[in-house]
Design brief:
230 residues; alpha+beta; seven-stranded antiparallel sheet; 2 helices
């Protein structure tokens, strides 16, 4: 025995054009809603147009092109948002991987331990002479080293802990002052300090490294990753 359902009450054959189907209950994007409104308007225009003065094909085509352009822009925005999210995720993973590594960042302090201390210097350009002075915690110069013909970039400075009189100094924190010249003119020389990355935080979307020397570094240009890991 055949049965019929009284649940179907929509007898409008154009309901699928007007966006009235049951599938429309799903949440629509702004571009889909704009398309629905456009199609409703277009169908209404076609139904009420003057047979002796029909709609201009060029105008309809132009309107369709505008809808397609808007749709393309929204898809592009969605793609860029997705790429931005992926980039931020990759930044998080890369920054987190720095924890436990030794970095070389702007700073003039170095630790002397068992007759060994290490620091760095970055030269803005080639220098004829580079002078490095090691100061104790009271600011007194305990050791001076003069170098010649140094290339631009990062150079490493190692100190055996002995002062200018060849006397071993006690372990502790020391600092360096650097000056450089080329053809008699001063060269920009930046002292660099080695330190371990202890933790990571974020500031306005920028990763900030918390170093063992108490410094916080959030500028990639001022942080250089050393190959060692402890």
């Amino acid at each position: 025995m055949a049965t019929t359902s009284s649940a179907v009450t929509d007898t409008n054959p154009y309901s699928f054009l007007n966006g009235d189907s049951g599938a429309a209950t799903a949440k629509k994007s702004s571009i889909e809603e704009a398309q629905d409104r456009f199609m409703k308007l277009l169908v209404a225009q076609l139904q009420t147009q003057d047979p002796l003065n029909p709609l201009d094909n060029a105008a309809v085509t132009s309107q369709m092109a505008q809808i397609s352009t808007v749709q393309g822009i929204e898809k592009l925005n969605q793609t860029m948002t997705s790429l931005s999210g992926m980039y931020q995720t990759s930044q998080t993973v890369a920054a987190a991987a720095l924890i436990g590594h030794i970095t070389l960042s702007d700073g003039n302090q170095m630790q002397l331990s068992s007759g060994k201390a290490i620091a760095g210097v970055e030269l803005a350009k080639d220098a004829d002479t580079v002078e490095i002075k090691v100061n104790d915690k009271n600011g007194n110069v305990v050791y001076t080293e003069k170098l010649t013909s140094q290339k631009a970039g990062v150079m490493q400075f190692q100190w055996d802990g002995k002062n200018n009189d060849d006397v071993l100094q006690p372990d502790g924190t020391y600092s360096i002052n650097v000056s450089a010249k080329a053809n008699g003119d001063a060269v920009n020389a930046t002292p660099l300090a080695y330190s371990k990355v202890e933790a990571l935080s974020w500031n306005s979307g920028v990763p900030v490294l918390h170093l063992s020397n108490g410094r916080e570094v959030g500028d990639r240009k001022s942080t250089r990753l050393n190959s060692s890991h402890t």
